[in-house]
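Just scan this pair:

***
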Amino acid sequence: MTDQARPDSAADAGTAEAEPPAPEARHAAAERLVHQYTLGAMAVGLVPVPLVDLAALVAVQLKMLHGLAGLYDIDFKADLGRSAVASLVGGVLPGAMAPTLAASLSKLIPVSGQLLGGGTLVILNGAATYAIGKVFIQHFAAGGTFLTFDPEAVRDYFEQQFEAGKQVAAELKPKARRRAEKTEGVPGASAAEQSAGE
């Protein structure tokens, strides 16, 4: 029995918890994740069906928060993530959803409405997702969790990042269009899965 105990203890030592990544490496991975999901959120702005694009946007943003939470070893629950995003966007920029909803609904107008709505949503989706990602990187890096998140405490930072996100989205717009065209019609994939593609 002693011989059998040794391999088990050796296996245990080999599977011991790995050291967490250095803060710089974690931050770089988080920035890449936000960039990826910003691009994905922009691509769902091109979904031609009104309101489906907004549902896909929420799915992309929740998936981003799930990834960020994993990087920072934070427990993730979809309802807490959804609530945090709603309180951040709704409480910090109450008017932010009105143009997004209007742009989505404008897709009901044939041709011109879809062009206008899609173009507007691409930038707004990208800017909002970028800002949400940056806020949660800062919050998680400071030791925060979803339960300790206070949208009022990050109001100014969110607004700054939303403005910066518009510029980022403008630079990424051609890439988002290519991604949307490439994933269009992939059987069995939802818009959120396609747009946030790895």
Q: What stands out?
A: The helical segments are 2-14, 23-44, 52-71, 78-92, 97-105, 112-141, 155-183, 191-195.
